[in-house]
């Protein structure tokens, strides 16, 4: 599933591809993707004539700011956007087509069909699910070591499970939690309420550093992720533990281990953590 760096990268490419363009019509071929409103014809009618003014991001969600509406889109496992000419035949995995001016289409493609779209009046999107429950953004002033420790002190869950909880911190997923915990030298099975003040400072620094570097590299293309221009991310070449089971740790040489923590595949160094 695309995490904060991947979604941020898609956002930045969509800013180049879609901002300023007007939607003339919408074609939906897999209605289950559209969650609000629950009628695809109404969804299309609401978007007709709307111009894409800005692209935003909240956690792992993309936000299309239009004239009157905000479209909240979650890519889930394999959703992706791309700009195409209308003469180009859409493939079988293209489920939503935003017909634009100048013979262009912004297409949403999703092999697994798990993605979601919600439409709200502008300004209302943050007051309703799926955005209203999200925790702080890692790149904002609200995310401090103190805030992080206060959240962790409230739970006896594994620290990894707590960090994956989107109500605690928005945007983190399996890849970047594993990487941040490694850099902080914290084992993912530590209960959240055992994290010390000093460890919270280091973990905060590791989370921000990992996400910033991942954004700079365009995210991680572990499976099928590409940005809005079809380009792969490159951060996977910099990973310390994720996906490196059996390989030597880049810091100490010990063999990277894989286990299951909170139902998620988890990579750790038995020495460094």
Automatic annotation (TrEMBL):
Gene3D superfamilies given in the database record: 1.10.8.50, MutM-like, N-terminal (3.20.190.10)
Co-factor: note: Binds 1 zinc ion per subunit.
Cofactor(s) needed for function: Zn(2+)
Domain FPG-type residue range list: 240-273
KW Transcription regulation (keyword) present: no
Enzyme Commission numbers on file: 3.2.2.23, 4.2.99.18
Gene Ontology molecular function: 8-oxo-7,8-dihydroguanine DNA N-glycosylase activity; class I DNA-(apurinic or apyrimidinic site) endonuclease activity; damaged DNA binding; double-stranded DNA binding; zinc ion binding
Formamidopyrimidine-DNA glycosylase catalytic domain span: 2-115
Binding positions (DNA): 93, 112
Active site (record annotation): 2-3, 60, 264
Recorded catalytic activity of this chain's protein: Hydrolysis of DNA containing ring-opened 7-methylguanine residues, releasing 2,6-diamino-4-hydroxy-5-(N-methyl)formamidopyrimidine; 2'-deoxyribonucleotide-(2'-deoxyribose 5'-phosphate)-2'-deoxyribonucleotide-DNA = a 3'-end 2'-deoxyribonucleotide-(2,3-dehydro-2,3-deoxyribose 5'-phosphate)-DNA + a 5'-end 5'-phospho-2'-deoxyribonucleoside-DNA + H(+)
Swiss-Prot/TrEMBL keywords: DNA damage, DNA repair, DNA-binding, Glycosidase, Hydrolase, Lyase, Metal-binding, Multifunctional enzyme, Zinc, Zinc-finger
GO biological process: base-excision repair
Entries under NCBIfam families matching the protein: fpg, PRK01103.1
Function: Involved in base excision repair of DNA damaged by oxidation or by mutagenic agents. Acts as DNA glycosylase that recognizes and removes damaged bases. Has a preference for oxidized purines, such as 7,8-dihydro-8-oxoguanine (8-oxoG). Has AP (apurinic/apyrimidinic) lyase activity and introduces nicks in the DNA strand. Cleaves the DNA backbone by beta-delta elimination to generate a single-strand break at the site of the removed base with both 3'- and 5'-phosphates.
Subunit text: Monomer.
UniProt family annotation: Belongs to the FPG family.
The name this protein goes by in its record: Formamidopyrimidine-DNA glycosylase
Native species: Alteribacter lacisalsi
Gene that produces this protein: mutM
């Amino acid at each position: 599933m695309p995490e904060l760096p991947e979604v941020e990268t898609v956002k930045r490419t969509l800013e180049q591809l879609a901002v300023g363009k007007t939607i003339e019509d919408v074609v939906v071929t897999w209605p289950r993707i559209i969650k609000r409103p629950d009628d695809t014809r109404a969804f299309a009618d609401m978007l007709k004539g709307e111009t894409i003014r800005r692209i935003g991001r909240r956690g792992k969600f993309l936000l299309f700011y239009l004239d009157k509406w905000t479209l909240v889109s979650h890519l889930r496992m394999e959703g992706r956007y791309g700009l195409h000419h209308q003469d180009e035949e859409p493939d079988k995995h293209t489920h939503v087509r935003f017909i634009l001016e100048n013979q262009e289409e912004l297409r949403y493609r999703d092999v697994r069909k798990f993605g979601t779209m919600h439409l709200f009046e502008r300004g209302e999107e943050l007051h309703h699910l799926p955005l209203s429950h999200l925790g702080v953004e890692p790149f904002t002033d609200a995310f401090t070591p103190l805030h992080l420790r206060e959240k962790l002190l409230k739970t006896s869950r594994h620290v990894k499970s707590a960090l994956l909880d989107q109500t605690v911190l928005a945007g983190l997923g399996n890849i970047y939690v594993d990487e941040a915990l490694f850099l902080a030298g914290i084992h993912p099975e530590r209960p959240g309420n055992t994290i010390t003040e000093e460890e919270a400072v280091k973990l905060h620094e590791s989370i921000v550093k990992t996400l910033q570097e991942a954004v700079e590299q365009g995210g991680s293309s572990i499976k099928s992720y590409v940005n809005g221009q079809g380009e792969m991310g490159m951060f996977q070449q910099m990973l310390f533990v994720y996906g490196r089971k059996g390989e030597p740790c880049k810091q100490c040489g010990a063999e990277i281990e894989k286990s299951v923590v909170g139902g998620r595949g988890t990579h750790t160094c038995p020495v460094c953590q």
